[in-house]
Design brief:
The chain folds into two domains: 1-112; 113-235, no CATH class. Helix content is 39%, strand content 17%. It is of the alpha+beta class and 280 residues long. The protein starts with a strand and ends with a helix.
């Protein structure tokens, strides 16, 4: 935001004041017709998914994020939890922030090594999923477990919810539904706000959870709901290219070979099998 901007935060007041000039960080920043200082009043701004006006600390974090581009003293420290980042992202979206701000927030989240997703399952239980280097399995035999990737013979999973828990049966289905719901919400939000790096992390997490086939995939039941029409409609073209054209059409399964401890296998597409049958 060009010229001076200050924020007044408190229990009742949330203002942003800026001087004249076109902002490179916020589109259509309001300004006085006479060119004088403008008060940007956010006291009645209600963010998406909220029922009360935006809190002053959210506006302060937004300004810290914006000013950190030019002032190292106003550094922004991203949270490890996406849920704690949601108000900041929806605030940036609500005030029509430019791609510069969204890219900066996107890049800051990419540098968070322990980036995680939290979702409450019921009043007494919630799940926290790390979005990188983790596989989660849920089954009636072994409960909800977390594996660190890569998995080898010495890997020991972390038991997050034992199968002997009296409410495991009900919670198991609720966990899968909750995870699928929150992933779809974040995929849509990341796609809509042009957070391409975050969207790629989320897609990578979903693909990783599909690896333990037959061992209790975490997203198996709600997989179709993850790729909702609204998420696909907003998804950046480069991600659609990576997921469909590059990974499904250019990198053909018939060219993939697997080998492990003396056992090897070669995957073939239906087209390859049909061609082999013609020559049999």
């Amino acid at each position: 935001m060009r010229n001076s901007i200050c924020v007044f935060t408190g229990c009742r007041d949330t203002h942003v004041r800026g001087g004249p000039g076109k902002s490179r960080c916020v589109k259509d920043l309001p300004k006085n017709a006479d060119g004088g200082p403008t008060v940007w009043d956010l006291r009645q701004l209600v963010l998406e998914g909220e029922s009360t006006p935006v809190a002053g600390d959210v506006v302060q974090r937004y300004l810290d994020l914006t000013y950190s581009r030019i002032d190292s003293a106003r550094g922004y420290v991203p949270s490890q939890s996406l849920e704690e980042t949601r108000p900041l992202l929806t605030c940036a979206d609500a005030v029509s922030s430019s791609d510069v701000i969204h890219e900066q927030l996107d890049h800051s989240l990419l540098n968070v090594s322990g980036l995680c997703l939290n979702r409450g399952v019921d009043e007494a239980f919630s799940v926290q999923l790390r979005l990188r280097e983790r596989i989660y399995t849920v089954s009636s035999a072994n409960g909800l477990r977390e594996w660190k990737v890569p998995v080898d013979d010495n890997s020991v999973p972390v038991l997050l919810l034992p199968s002997r828990d009296a409410q495991f049966g009900a919670r198991s289905a609720a966990i899968q539904a909750a995870v699928s719901t929150v992933l779809e919400e974040w995929m849509y939000l990341a796609d809509r706000t042009r957070m391409t790096k975050l969207a790629r992390v989320l897609l990578g997490f979903v693909k990783t959870q599909l690896v333990p086939y037959g061992c209790g995939q975490l997203v198996e039941e709600g997989l179709r709901g993850l790729y909702s029409p609204r998420a696909l409609q907003c998804m950046p073209h480069e991600l659609l290219y990576e997921a469909l054209v590059r990974d499904c059409l250019m990198v053909l399964p018939s060219r993939i070979s697997l080998a492990a401890k003396g056992v090897s296998a070669k995957l073939a597409t239906p087209a390859v099998l049909d061609k082999a049958a013609e020559h049999a």
